[in-house]
Write a structure and sequence with these properties.
By secondary structure, the protein is of the alpha+beta class. The protein is built from 6 helices and 11 strands. A 9-stranded antiparallel sheet has the order 2-3-4-5-1-6-11-10-9. The longest helix is centred in the last third of the chain and has 25 residues.
Length: 239
Amino acid sequence: MPIVDAVFEIRFSAGVPISSVLPGLLFSKLEGSKQIIRLPTADIPEQMRLMDPNLQYAPILRIVWGTFNVNIGDRSCSVGCNLPYPGWTEFKRAILQINQFVGETNLLAAIERMALKYTNIIPTSVGSSADIADYDLRLGSKDAKNGLFHVRAEIIDGEYLHLTQLASKGAATLPDGTTLCEGTVIDIDTMRQNFSNNQPTKFFSMLPEALDALHLRTKAMFFSLLKPETIRMMGATYD
């Protein structure tokens, strides 16, 4: 399994910064081990955060909940996984539970977007980036596909947008600094922004089906970047 990071995020407008309400609600309702961590962004005054486009969606508090992390901002909420990735069934269950509580605050005015991001590292033992991924890279007359590079591209896919990054070399490290793996990085952040109805009640009622559709688009994008022999070597299983 090449997945080293997975995050689901929603962004929204709200009558009040949800960071002042949601952490306490989640902490009281979530079962199991949990801990609230104050992030550096919390030290920036609220009015300054709301005026700066780069800070409006930045996480302020984090709840470490078992194998998941819940990041809460003034206008955003995301759910991420700790390693090892638990699989889509468990990840989806956590996403739906957190977002049920978000909806129950009744503070959201409109949903702006939802996104699912997977970071994958295919080990160097499988091959180089040129061996693994289906791409071509030239700068003028020079072939650059076999060197070190980091490429970012936005790919439109119907009502979805894939923010895709391909890097010839990267590493995943554990909190203690131990290197988990090194290899080719394929990072796919798939988002959906245009909803026929962006009202929170409607959004949360359709979220289970929308999540599966988002996951399938992200999964399809990942496989489309791999060479057929890479898929055969690694196996077609990807959750």
